[in-house]
Amino acid sequence: MLARVQRWLSMLWIGGTLAWLTMFSIAGRPWTAVIGALAIFGAHAWVLAVEFMVLPWINRHDPAPRASGSMLVRAWWAEVCAATRVFGWQQPWRWHCEPDWLPESAHGRRGVVFVHGFMCNRGFWNPWLSRLRAGGVPFVAVNLEPVLGSIERYADTVENAVRQVTRVTGVAPVIVAHSMGGLAVRAWLCGVDADDRVHSVITIGTPHRGTWLAAMGLAHNAREMRYGCDWVETLGQREAQARRVLFTCFYSHCDNIACPASTGTLPGADNRHVDGMAHVELAFQEVVFDALWTRVAHGAPGGEPSSRPRAPARAWREDAG
Fold it and tell me: pTM of the entire structure?
């Protein structure tokens, strides 16, 4: 469903840009045509710019390292490009181009379960999926639905994915979760007490204590991610502290969504700060992929994956399939 909505939005976005450009070009007003078309096409860039302008204020008391102005500008532009690729291409049009991969030969190899974040679908992970397939690593990537429902309702989806991978591989999988997906994984672990069924959990830009920006969200899952709200506080109280050793948490002082920055950490977890990375961009950094590859390339009984697959040469070609 989300892919269909984002497909219509992307067509409206492109169509509106072309309509403005055509209308004012025909009217003999080329500058109005060009400036207006750029404003429409780059509308998301202005929204992101506001987020990055308020980010230093949100992080003003946070213990994470301070981001410089040049870091914020670079992160803003990288996020404009990454968001365009993910929300305008991968998720609307290519969400199914990398199907789950669980071949019979995967028995004994450690697999991966991917859990996306808010207003995303499995197409978010396409660059990771193509690389893991090339490296011989089995995986399942879920779609969390209902899109705007409670985070608690995603537990069954995570459970089914873990069962699928374990049934084929016979080995506890690694779970990789971006943003809200990390909260969904924690809620699932609390609900089924499944620590021994998971090798480890990698969270990327997950607002473990909620995020300041969620105050502007009205959806059920957005309200559950408000900074310091009852839901995230209760989640932290429900889970055993010993569980945190399963977690590696990547976070950044330039994360424009999971903020303040240290909300991306968990006490007792392996918390790793990455300089200068925005929310979507953070998920596609080599340091994050390396953390996963270390887990799937070693310690899996009965067979190792092939050599580490290279990153895509171009961001726009990672899922050209």
Answer: 0.91
